[in-house]
Design a protein that fits this description.
- The structure is a single chain.
- By secondary structure, this protein is α/β, with parallel strands linked by helices.
- Helix content is 46%, strand content 19%.
- Helix 2 packs across helix 10 and helix 4 crosses helix 12.
């Protein structure tokens, strides 16, 4: 009996560091890295979640926008950060599920360098064109591009991004010759789209709808399987015959690998509580973002599954990083 008591006591003592770590977190400010410029969906999510996390915990959250190299500069910074739970990364799915195949020489590896925390939100993507382009719908765009091969350019937030790949898929499936122009983020691409320097771009509804409503760009189609409440009158590319164009955006949270599992779980619980709250949901849905949380294990499984799917698509389409 005494032996069993000692064994039980030893197990309690051994668990103290884990319990203390989870209970003490967070004890100081958190750095939340958004690897794209201000104004896009990642920035919106980071600031919304960061503000609510600070309210809930009493600790400040510093939003650090670190754009460049299609998001890889900010991502690498998080990969090299201390695995203590105080540096987070908010990132779109393309940087996780696509770049592993499209850019195999990246200085970081998702399996090795990161611990998935949770999904944060999803958003439908859409195709928009510059007012300088004389087209009003997808069929007119298709006819114009075929009549002017190599003259229509499309912007993306960087080589290897999901929106770059969407353009490459459109070029392959529609049989049109369009030219990719990479930017450091959606904001810069949008500025050139409005100015007529590029002809079209893909992007998440939250990023593009304000400019569509203001009449600065023209919406052509959604690139998801069904119409969206965020733009109910806008048809999908699937309705035009491109059935493989079901490419919604999703955004997730990760931390450096070797972050203690109990800290990862605590961060997941906080983010899930924030994005599923009525207040946050109202704020995000008003901008076309749909909150969605899952467990670290579920998120990791989704990353592995979609990475395999994109790898197959990239190989079959013969797509290469520019």
């Amino acid at each position: 009996m005494q032996t069993l008591f000692h064994l039980a006591w030893a197990l309690v003592v051994l668990s103290w560091p884990t319990l203390a770590c989870a209970q003490a977190f967070p004890s100081h400010s958190v750095r939340l890295v958004a690897p794209f410029p201000p104004g896009g969906p990642i920035d919106i999510l980071a600031r919304t979640v960061g503000e609510q996390f600070s309210r809930r915990t009493g600790q400040p959250v510093v939003i650090e926008n670190r754009p460049g190299a299609g998001g890889n500069i900010g991502i690498e910074a998080v990969a090299r950060a201390a695995p203590d739970g105080y540096t987070w990364l908010f990132v779109p799915q393309g940087n996780i599920t696509i770049n592993a195949t499209l850019m195999p020489d990246m200085p970081f590896n998702w399996e090795r360098d990161f611990a998935p925390v949770t999904l944060v939100a999803t958003a439908p993507n859409m195709l928009v064109v510059s007012p300088a382009l004389p087209v009003g719908n997808y069929r007119e765009l298709l006819a114009y591009a075929r009549a002017h091969p190599g003259k229509v350019s499309y912007g993306s937030p960087g080589v290897g991004s999901a929106l770059h790949l969407a353009g490459e898929l459109l070029r392959r499936e529609a049989g049109i010759d369009i030219v990719h122009v990479p930017y450091k983020g959606t904001t810069q691409a949008m500025a050139d789209l409005i100015g007529g320097q590029i002809g079209m771009m893909f992007g998440a509804v939250p990023s593009l709808m304000p400019q569509v409503r203001a009449g600065k760009v023209r919406a052509i189609a959604l690139i998801v399987a069904t119409r969206s409440p965020a733009a109910p009158d806008l048809p999908t590319l699937a309705e035009s015959g491109l059935r493989d164009f079901d490419l919604p955006s999703w955004y997730g949270a990760l931390v450096p690998a070797r972050t203690p599992p109990e800290v990862v779980d605590r961060i997941q619980q906080e983010i899930a509580a924030i994005v599923t709250s009525t207040e946050t949901r109202r704020v995000l849905e008003a901008q076309g973002l749909y909150p969605l949380a899952n467990t670290p294990a579920e998120f990791a499984a989704r990353i592995r599954r979609e990475t395999a799917t994109w790898a197959r698509i990239i190989r079959e389409a013969g797509i290469r990083a520019e």
